[in-house]
Structures are given as structure tokens and as C-alpha cells.
Design brief:
alpha+beta, five-stranded antiparallel beta sheet, 13 strands
Length: 304
């Protein structure tokens, strides 16, 4: 996979400095020229070092993404259904650079997406937990009732000292180390914490596989206040995504909407599923959404 990427073969700290030392990258809440960040990275003694996490690196570094480019998505992850949004898709890819001890506290990836993370230099420790209505969050992590706020009142180092042993004995826990040239998959909705064991360079991308299309549709429809990464001029990401899927992947959309109806445990009209509003007995959908049908556009089509 990533072993064949030109960036894997060519990137290291020195080569990046030679080409991009004056380019500003986002390190958490600040933008630093790469030379400034690398100097900090190699000389800091912080318990929780600043982490370079830049979403515009492809444009800043003039990279080409694709089989004939600087890197490409590993084929094993299949088609990314957010690709139907083209330039209107939410933020999806990041360059990640950091010293040892840097990393991310427990979180889920945005918009119920899945992710892959490819280590180009260095090594990373991962610990992950599946999610579900009957499963609690990882030890030491506290979530609001609507899951809009996540609190982990400890740094990564403190969490490892206080909760690591408990977490490793918790049902569903997975952990491992990713080294150079290895790629890790984070399924939709999984909690994960990552810490760099050595100075690290990585690329990560969020995506929507067919297997988790239902989860993404539900998130966009039911949690609009938690949707992130879309441009400000996109007022209804759920509507936009459904419209594009109807045009390009109608069979996948129909399958996902049927799964949503079965999960809800009762018959649901297409209008209710698509709009996120109730349907009155007279068949009229309430709200200002939109509607469409499959096949013969039967207004009374229901999900069994």
C-alpha cells in the first residue's frame, strides 16, 4: 500500500524542510512555518506537545492525489461515497506531524465517517473501542447525553497512567502499534486515542464506505448541530448528500434508507426518512424538506 507512495519514498524531516520550510501549517490553534514547528518539535519538553494537523496540505504542497500522483487511497477501503459531493465535501484529509508524546485524546471521527491513517515516518500507539447504544465510552471519558460534548479531563500521559490498565481489560478494547509503511483503519463511530512513540509523519483521510452509509445518513439527518467540516454556504448537508446519492448511487441510497427503516422497528415512508420529519395520516410530510421516490415514484412506498 503506502510503501509504494512517492511520499513514503521521499518524505522525511529534512526533505520536507528543504521544500516547504517557509510554508505555514496549522499546529492545533496556530499557523507556523514548517521550520518553526520542526525546531519546536525537536526541542520541546512538553508533556502534551503541539501537534501539526493540517487539512490544506495537498494544496499548500502542490501534491497530486491518485494512482499517478504523490499518494492514493488504499484500494482495500473501496469507494468513498462522500466523493459524490466533489468540491462540496467536508474536510477529509490531513497531514499529521508531531514529536514523541504528541497525539490525540479519545474521540470519534466527524460525521460518523470511517478513516484510514498511514504512517510515513515514526510509529504510533493506538487504543480503540467499538461504540453502540449498550456500550459505555472508554474509561476516563465522559459524554453528554446527546453525545455533542466529550470530556477527557486528563492529558494523554495522565490518562495512560490512570486508566490504561482498566481500559486494556475492558470488553472490546483493541490496541496496537503502527510503524512506517503501515495503515490503520478506524471504523465509523469507534473511539480511539493515538500517541506518537517517536517523531512521526502521517497522512489520514476520512471517508464513507458503503457498509457505513446508513450511519452517516443518520448522523447528518439527526444531529445537524454536530455536523462539521462543510463550507458555511452549505445549509443542509444531509439534503445535499441524499440528492447526489440519488443521482449517482440510487441503489445504495435505497438500501441504506431501508436499513434505517428496519432499525427503527416500524414501517417508515420514504418522505419521513429523507426529510427527517413525520408524515401525517393524510400522507403529507411536515417541514420544509424535500422528497423523492424510487422506481415508479410511489408516494405510498413503505419500508418493511
Amino acid at each position: 500500500m503506502s510503501l509504494y507512495w512517492p511520499v513514503y519514498q521521499n518524505w522525511n524531516e529534512q526533505s520536507l524542510l528543504e521544500r516547504y520550510e517557509d510554508v505555514a501549517f496549522r499546529a492545533e490553534s496556530v499557523d507556523w512555518p514548517l521550520r518553526t514547528y520542526v525546531k519546536y518539535m525537536n526541542n520541546n519538553t512538553d508533556e502534551s506537545p503541539l501537534y501539526l494537523f493540517d487539512r490544506a496540505f495537498v494544496e499548500k504542497m502542490n501534491l497530486k492525489v491518485g494512482l499517478d500522483g504523490n499518494y492514493w487511497t488504499p484500494e482495500c477501503f473501496g469507494e468513498d461515497l462522500f466523493a459524490v459531493l466533489d468540491e462540496q465535501r467536508p474536510d477529509s484529509r490531513w497531514l499529521i506531524v508531531g514529536p514523541e508524546r504528541s497525539g490525540s485524546t479519545f474521540h470519534k471521527d466527524p460525521n460518523a465517517t470511517s478513516a484510514w491513517n498511514a504512517v510515513i515516518r515514526g510509529s504510533k500507539y493506538w487504543i480503540m473501542f467499538p461504540t453502540g447504544s449498550s456500550l459505555p465510552p472508554p474509561p476516563g471519558v465522559y459524554v453528554s447525553e446527546d453525545q455533542s460534548e466529550v470530556t477527557s479531563p486528563l492529558s494523554i500521559a495522565e490518562w495512560l497512567l490512570e486508566f490504561h490498565d482498566e481500559a486494556r481489560n475492558t470488553k472490546g478494547c483493541l490496541e496496537g502499534i503502527c510503524n512506517e509503511g503501515e495503515v490503520l483503519h478506524v471504523p465509523s463511530g469507534w473511539w480511539h486515542l493515538v500517541v506518537n512513540l517517536s517523531p512521526s509523519i502521517a497522512i489520514t483521510q476520512n471517508f464513507v464506505p458503503e457498509a457505513h452509509l446508513k450511519e452517516v445518513l443518520l448522523f447528518l439527518r439527526d444531529k445537524p448541530d454536530q455536523v462539521s467540516g462543510f463550507r458555511g454556504d452549505i445549509g443542509d448537508p444531509y439534503r445535499l448528500f441524499v440528492e447526489r446519492l440519488k443521482t449517482k448511487h440510487p441503489e445504495l441510497l435505497e438500501k441504506a434508507l431501508r436499513r434505517i427503516g428496519v432499525q427503527n422497528g416500524k414501517k417508515r415512508k420514504w418522505e419521513e426518512l429523507v426529510q427527517g420529519h413525520s408524515v401525517h395520516e393524510n400522507g403529507e410530510a411536515q417541514g420544509n424538506g424535500f422528497a423523492f421516490g424510487f422506481g415508479d415514484d410511489d408516494d405510498d412506498l413503505e419500508i418493511p
